């Protein structure tokens, strides 16, 4: 089921090859491992996407694409997995990352963290600048925490996909064995 479900919605390498703007990457973008959908490539794609999802700014998908090329994991899965971060989730994720970094650095009892700035819909650029300034004030604990949180999310995503895929395969195998052992009514 996972493979059939995802293959229905994933673009094929041939379809992507037709996009002229991507021709500057040459043949490296069309390596078979980047488009193959199996346990290893899907789990690796999720891990890469979850790790790169915490990259600040609009560089998440670029980072996921480059990492997918380097590690030869499924490219569409890695790009999709970065979408867990958005304007609603990034602030709580960075707050958790700061707490992790402060805990690891031993600064948990240090100064109190100011709450993140409000997001004003009518002024998105000003809100983004205010968030950036707030994040810069957090400093080293935030940087370390983002890296550690990205590693934890990446490892958890990899393991969940591998275990989930294996459980599904075992379930499908037992269903197939049951279907074969049933007598056929004629």
Structure report:
This protein has 186 residues and is mostly helical. It has nine helices and no strands. The protein has helices at 2-9, 13-17, 32-35, 39-52, 60-71, 75-81, 90-105, 124-138, 140-181. Helix 4 (39-52) packs antiparallel against helix 5, helix 5 packs antiparallel against helix 6 and helix 7 crosses helix 9 (140-181). The longest helix is centred in the C-terminal third of the chain and has 42 residues, at 140-181.
Topology:
Layout (H helix, E strand, L loop, with lengths): L1 H8 L3 H5 L14 H4 L3 H14 L7 H12 L3 H7 L8 H16 L18 H15 L1 H42 L5
General form: globular
Number of strands: 0
Mean pLDDT: 83
Distance between the termini: 30 Å
Helix content: 55-70%
Taken as a percent bin, the fraction of beta residues is: under 5%
Taking the sheet with the most strands, its summary is: none
Helix-strand makeup class:
mainly alpha
If helices are DSSP runs of H or I spanning 4 or more residues, what is the number of helices? 9
Rg over C-alpha atoms, rounded to the nearest angstrom: 21 Å
Poorly predicted parts: none
Order of helices and strands: HHHHHHHHH
Descriptive tags:
186 residues, mainly alpha, 9 helices
Quick gist of this model?
The protein has 186 residues and is an all-alpha fold. The protein contains 9 helices and no strands.
């Amino acid at each position: 089921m996972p493979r059939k479900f995802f293959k229905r919605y994933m673009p094929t390498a041939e379809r992507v090859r037709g996009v002229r703007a991507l021709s500057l990457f040459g043949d490296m973008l069309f390596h078979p491992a980047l488009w193959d959908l199996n346990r290893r490539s899907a789990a690796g794609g999720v891990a890469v996407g979850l790790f790169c999802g915490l990259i600040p700014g609009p560089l998440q998908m670029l980072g996921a694409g480059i990492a997918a090329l380097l590690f030869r994991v499924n490219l569409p899965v890695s790009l999709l997995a970065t979408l867990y971060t958005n304007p609603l989730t990034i602030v709580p994720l960075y707050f958790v990352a700061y707490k992790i970094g402060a805990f690891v650095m031993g600064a948990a009892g240090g100064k109190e963290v100011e709450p993140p700035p409000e997001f004003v819909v009518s002024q998105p650029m000003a809100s983004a600048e205010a968030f950036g300034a707030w994040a810069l004030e957090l400093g080293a604990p935030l940087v370390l925490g983002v890296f550690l949180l990205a590693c934890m999310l990446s490892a958890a995503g990899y393991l969940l996909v591998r275990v989930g895929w294996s459980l599904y395969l075992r379930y499908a195998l037992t269903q197939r064995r049951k279907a074969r052992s049933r007598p056929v009514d004629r």
